[in-house]
């Protein structure tokens, strides 16, 4: 790997589904790496054994796969690297950048209580920091970082600018617990270093962590990654995104019928911008994405904007790819699979179905004319268009269609001439035709439906409706 190669990572904790905020973090890392010919790595931070589950890991992988964010190599398990993390902590002991602390939990709690009561800082200062090894008792201990107490730690952040922490405000954090297991803070730094991560792009709730993690880099003499801490996503009301705002997991967006490309496009625009561009594809996003377009304020989630982009992406999508994603949507929503005949019908109808459609659910509703079968029983709305007068008109119209050439122009001309001869507006004819051909009111144009289902099926459905 050349030194100049960009390496980013996404490092979720497997304690639940892939949160929409996590999905955006993954997307930003993916775009940054892919746009620069770099690597995008995946690490599962499964050190919290009580809360980490294989099901949650599977849900995260599934969510990323649906979203189309491919990662390089295998996903790394942080838990499996515990031996390496401990090795680094022991190395820091040897070099004097860490020390053994024998203070018990009770002693630390008592110190904090006293400090609080006296109105003093509760930042714990271990008496073991400079204790001579011969004074060490034969008792359990934790390994703490010997953090600098003078001066300041400055995070040169690509989004937040320079953020300064006074070193006397940072404690000697624990690196290894008394049972020898590494802490999250140590594990993150060791993994990022070993994986060659050059850019750490994550939520700004990790900003304080960066100041402490930088001290481990310094102690080990490792070069720092470039930091970019991005603002969190808020709901439409300006409060932190939560369950009350609606869907939170990526899989819920698939089940709502949004194509993955639309969700990628929308998430990219959530907190990042490229001029006034709202609608764009992956190639443009990879080319354009950079830290300069990321705002410092939290972005607000807006379902209407997502829906609008979804409609645009469905409208321009490749028909075969759309059919494939539609089938995945059916699996995700536990709906029956399509028959071969239904797939053929959808393939023919797709150019007429995708215009003005904002979700796969809407698309399926519009496609009922190729998904259903005769006799088409009109639903409540459609049956209002099929009164006795309308049935009579359809009876008269049928022979005109039987004799027409089966092209759009010829069909439009035949229906138009028939309507004009009877002093009818075309709209007056379209509704009963819709009801007869699809049994629904939300459909593609009646002429598009006729072309897709063919002459024989059209005449048969009109004859059914007249009965």
Structural notes for this entry:
Residues 5-307 form the Glutamyl/glutaminyl-tRNA synthetase class Ib catalytic domain. This is Glutamate--tRNA ligase. This protein has 467 residues and is mainly α. The protein has 3 domains: 1-74 and 231-316, 3-Layer(aba) Sandwich (Rossmann fold); 81-230, HUPs (Rossmann fold); 380-466, Arc Repressor Mutant, subunit A, CATH 1.10.10. 48% of the residues lie in helices and 10% in strands. Helix 1 packs across helix 9, helix 5 packs across helix 6 and helix 12 (340-353) packs across helix 19 (446-466). The protein is elongated, with a radius of gyration of 31 Å.
Task: From the structure above, extract its key features.
three-stranded antiparallel β-sheet; three-stranded parallel β-sheet; Rossmann fold; 467 residues; 3 domains; mainly alpha
Write the layout of secondary structure elements.
Blueprint: E1 7-10, H1 20-34, E2 39-44, H2 54-67, E3 76-77, H3 82-95, E4 98-101, H4 105-117, E5 142-145, E6 152-157, E7 161-166, E8 174-176, H5 184-194, E9 199-203, H6 207-220, E10 226-230, E11 233-234, H7 250-255, H8 260-268, H9 282-288, E12 299-300, H10 303-316, H11 319-332, H12 340-353, H13 360-366, H14 368-371, H15 380-383, H16 388-402, H17 408-421, H18 426-438, H19 446-466
Parallel strand pairs: 1-2, 2-3, 9-10, 11-12
Antiparallel strand pairs: 4-5, 5-8, 6-7
Helix pairs in contact: 1-9, 3-5, 5-6, 8-10, 11-12, 12-19, 16-19, 18-19
């Amino acid at each position: 790997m050349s030194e100049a190669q960009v390496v980013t990572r996404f490092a979720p904790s497997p304690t639940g589904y892939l949160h929409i905020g996590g999905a955006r973090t993954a997307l930003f890392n993916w775009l940054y790496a892919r746009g620069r010919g770099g690597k995008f790595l995946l690490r599962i931070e499964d050190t919290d054994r009580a809360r980490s589950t294989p099901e949650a890991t599977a849900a995260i992988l599934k969510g990323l796969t649906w979203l189309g964010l491919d990662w390089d190599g295998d996903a790394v398990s942080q838990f499996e690297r515990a031996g390496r993390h401990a090795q680094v902590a022991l190395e820091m002991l040897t070099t004097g950048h860490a020390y053994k602390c024998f203070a018990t939990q009770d002693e630390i709690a008592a110190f904090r209580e006293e400090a609080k009561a006296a109105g003093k800082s509760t930042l714990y200062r271990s008496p073991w920091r400079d204790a001579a090894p011969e004074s060490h008792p034969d008792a359990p201990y934790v390994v703490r970082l010997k953090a600098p107490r003078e001066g300041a730690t400055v995070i040169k952040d690509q989004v937040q600018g320079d953020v300064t922490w006074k070193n006397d405000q940072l404690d000697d954090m624990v690196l290894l617990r008394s049972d020898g297991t590494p802490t999250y803070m140590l594990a993150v730094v060791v993994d990022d270093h070993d994986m060659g991560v050059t850019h750490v792009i994550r939520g700004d709730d990790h900003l304080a962590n960066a100041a402490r993690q930088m001290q481990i880099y310094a102690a080990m003499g490792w070069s720092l990654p470039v930091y970019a801490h991005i603002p969190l996503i808020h709901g439409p009301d300006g409060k932190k995104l939560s369950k009350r705002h609606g869907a939170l997991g990526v899989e819920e967006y698939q089940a709502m019928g949004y194509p993955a490309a639309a969700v990628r496009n929308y998430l990219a625009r959530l907190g990042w911008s490229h001029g006034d561009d709202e609608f764009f594809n992956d190639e443009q996003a990879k080319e354009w994405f950079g830290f300069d377009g990321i705002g410092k304020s939290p972005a607000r989630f807006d379902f209407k904007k997502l829906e609008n982009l979804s409609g645009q992406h469905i409208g321009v999508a490749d028909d075969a790819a759309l059919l494939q994603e539609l089938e995945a949507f059916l699996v995700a929503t536990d709906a029956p699979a399509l028959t071969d005949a239904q797939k053929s019908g959808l393939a023919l109808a797709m150019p007429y179905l995708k215009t003005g459609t904002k979700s796969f659910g809407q698309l399926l509703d519009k496609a009922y004319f190729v998904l259903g079968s005769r006799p088409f029983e009109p639903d409540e709305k459609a049956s209002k268009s099929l009164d006795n007068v309308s049935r009579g008109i359809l009876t008269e119209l049928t022979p005109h269609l039987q004799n027409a050439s089966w092209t759009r122009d010829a069909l439009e001309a035949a229906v138009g001439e028939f309507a004009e001869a009877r002093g009818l507006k075309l709209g007056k004819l379209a509704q009963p035709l819709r009801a007869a051909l699809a049994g629904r009111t939300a459909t593609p144009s009646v002429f598009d439906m006729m072309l897709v289902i063919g002459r024989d099926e059209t005449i048969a459905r009109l004859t059914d409706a007249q009965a």
